[in-house]
Amino acid sequence: MPIITLTTDFGWKDPYVGAVKGAIYKELENVNIVDISHEVTPFNIAEAAYIIKNAYHSFPDGTIHIIGVDAEHTPENIHIAVLLKGHFFICADNGVLALIMNKLRPEKLVEINIHDRISSNFTTLDAFVSTACHIARGGTLEVIGKPISRIRAISGVTPKISETKNIIYGQVIYIDNYGNSVANINKEIFEQIGKGRKFELSARNERFDKIFKRYSDIINFDDDEKKRDVDGKGLVIFNSAGYIEIATYKSNPLTVGSASTLFGLQINAPVIITFKES
């Protein structure tokens, strides 16, 4: 049974998610539809890419991923379908796929060209659903699109490295449900530039010189439980996706606060890592 995932900025209040699912079920009797997220910040390409990039690996090969973020079809925002590492992605060529692919090369890449057969202006409901269902039936990408060799990339999302190779300039690209702020600096870049050197991570007014493996590593379990006082204390880890995450222990944005609220680390907030000379 085919699997189709949905990642959009539709939210749950409006009828759009239900309409997309209904359109898929109209075309396919037997299909599994999985919601990855519908709470992407509207038009936030980097956030959408972060979510899908760190989720799609968990699905089996052949899964079809619809990304409905900033997807209106225009001459500058064409629609594409891609086969990448055994997975199909259907989205607008707005930079989201370039962020997902990173250094990977797609097996197939086409510009979707079925829009002359579609009358509505709800992209995710019409062109994307039709393409996804075509693939789910075993159809090839070449039937619904023409091969292309390049996709659009966006700047300002990847971290910058100083000429001296001593500083990584990054920024917050994602805030999770706990209010933790995720930077666009991954473990690979950190280790490649850092080479084991001591460092200072600065984010607004906060300073850190240690990266923990787990949130609970901030606790000294030899101390009396009543004297630990770690709730709300800031820390840095590499999260499950391998990215720098600035967090507070047992955070809650609605009650005790979080890194994003207490430290002011909202989307695009600068995160700078300075390595010390050996």
Structure notes:
- The strands form 2 sheets. Strands 8, 9, 10, 11, 12, 13, 14 and 15 form an 8-stranded antiparallel sheet that branches. A 7-stranded mixed sheet has the order 2-1-3-5-4-6-7, sandwiched between helices.
- Helix content is 20%, strand content 28%.
- It is built from 7 helices and 15 strands.
- The N and C termini lie far apart (56 Å).
- The protein has 2 domains: 3-147, Rossmann fold (3-Layer(aba) Sandwich); 160-275, Bacterial fluorinating enzyme like (Elongation Factor Tu (Ef-tu), domain 3, Beta Barrel), CATH 2.40.30.90.
- The chain is α+β, with helices and mostly antiparallel strands.
- Helix 1 (16-27) packs parallel to helix 4.
Q: Topology of this protein?
A:
Layout: E1 3-8, H1 16-27, E2 32-37, H2 45-53, E3 64-68, E4 79-84, E5 87-92, H3 96-101, E6 108-112, H4 124-136, H5 141-144, E7 145-147, E8 160-161, E9 167-175, E10 181-186, H6 187-194, E11 199-203, E12 206-208, E13 234-238, E14 243-248, H7 259-262, E15 270-275
Helix pairs in contact: 1-4
